[in-house]
Design brief:
CATH class of the largest domain: Alpha Beta
Number of helices: 6
CATH superfamily of the largest domain: Anticodon-binding domain
Structural class: mainly alpha
Length: about 170
């Protein structure tokens, strides 16, 4: 394949912010392109190289009776909790903040219900504005809001509706 027809182009110099030599070389050679912080696209040269490596590994694994498995990138936390590695793993494990908010909300819900408080747990995937509007229409007297930002700060937001007494 001619270099002039490749999808990716080579670079004379590595872009700024490259800290590891291999990263810079892969960028310069046209193997990868950065999409976002820590996220890269494999360009045709990298796909070809990876395909060749996979073929070698597959051949060797079949020779010793191994099997190929494809696993999901994102796994639920309970898989890691059962093995005892959920809290011990470091930065390598990505904790999804939305999942942490869900865990916090679930725990709060269970505590409030066990204390005898009537709770409407609204975890719909709608905008906060539409959920707030619905809560106001239903006349919910107290609203607690947990968001990823509030969880990082160690706080929650609350709104108490002022009830007017009609005589």
């Amino acid at each position: 394949m001619r270099m002039s027809v490749l999808f990716g182009r080579t670079l004379r110099e590595a872009p700024s912010g490259v800290e590891v030599a291999s990263h810079g070389l892969l960028l310069r050679a046209g193997f990868i392109r950065q999409v976002a912080a820590g996220v890269f696209s494999y360009l045709p040269l990298a796909k070809r190289s990876i395909g060749k490596i996979e073929a070698i590994l597959r051949e060797e694994m079949e020779a010793v009776g191994g099997q190929e498995v494809s696993m999901p990138v994102v796994q639920p936390a309970d898989v890691w909790e059962r093995s005892g590695r959920y809290r011990t793993i470091g930065r390598e494990l990505v904790h999804l903040v939305a999942a942490e908010v869900g865990e916090m909300a679930d725990g709060l819900y269970e505590k409030l219900v066990s204390a005898g408080v009537e709770v409407l747990y609204d975890d719909r995937r709608e905008s906060l504005g539409s959920r707030f509007k619905d809560a106001d229409l239903m006349g919910i007297p107290l609203r607690l809001t947990l968001t990823p930002r509030s969880l990082q700060r160690g706080e929650s937001r609350s709104k108490a509706e002022a009830r007017q007494r009609v005589i």
